[in-house]
Amino acid sequence: xxxxxxxxxxxxxxxxxxxxxxxxxxxxxxxxxxxxxxxxxxxxxxxxxxxxxxxxxxxxxxxxxxxxxxxxxxxxxxxxxxxxxxxxxxxxxxxxxxxxxxxxxxxxxxxxxxxxxxxxxxxxxxxxxxxxxxxxxxxxxxxxxxxxxxxxxxxxxxxxxxxxxxxxxxxxxxxxxxxxxxxxxxxxxxxxxxxxxxxxxxxxxxxxxxxxxxxxxxxxxxxxxxxxxxxxxxxxxxxxxxxxxxxxx
Length: 249
Prior knowledge:
CATH architecture: 3-Layer(aba) Sandwich
CATH superfamily: NAD(P)-binding Rossmann-like Domain
Number of helices: 9
Radius of gyration: 17 Å
Strand content: 5-15%
Largest sheet: 7 strands, parallel
Structural class: alpha/beta
Low-confidence stretches: none
CATH topology: Rossmann fold
Helix content: 40-55%
Strand order of the largest sheet: 3-2-1-4-5-6-7
Shape: globular
């Protein structure tokens, strides 16, 4: 079990990729703090882990609400449960041509996908540094942030910001024995993907060299690697999990 003695907090873990990450980290021995803007979905993921004899706790936490983030942080510190693995997974997107975007949509995309990562990292990084025991931050960005995505220009910009944040924090935090890395999923089999028009989904599938969409577990395994001891000498790296769809450097 590569993650024994690790306490991992995962945002957006109520469903999809986030749920797969939380379950995978628990399977590898971590105690998992499941957070989601829906407290009900977070509790369902925690129960799924507990039913598999893992250790999990759940909290409702919206990454756009500083008060909720602070509340969860204080609850965990009071229980001596400060995370030494932080997985910033929460995100949101919608497909729309840039020229049809409203400023309100820009604000929402940036607030969730970039500022949410910044808020949560700032809140939970300080206790990690103070512990002097090191740790891992794994940010879930997107291949949209690496190579762009039609209909998701501002989302891609926010995810590109997460990539830049990852690299910059990696440089800052190595002195504290904290590594910071980033996983960039390609098209993944989720409800969000299937909400797109069928012809779009079919065309996207044909463009993937492996001829399949990622399973959320594929993303979760990459996150688990970055959180594990075998990755202790790896920091500031960006891993694409896309079945070969995006091979740009």
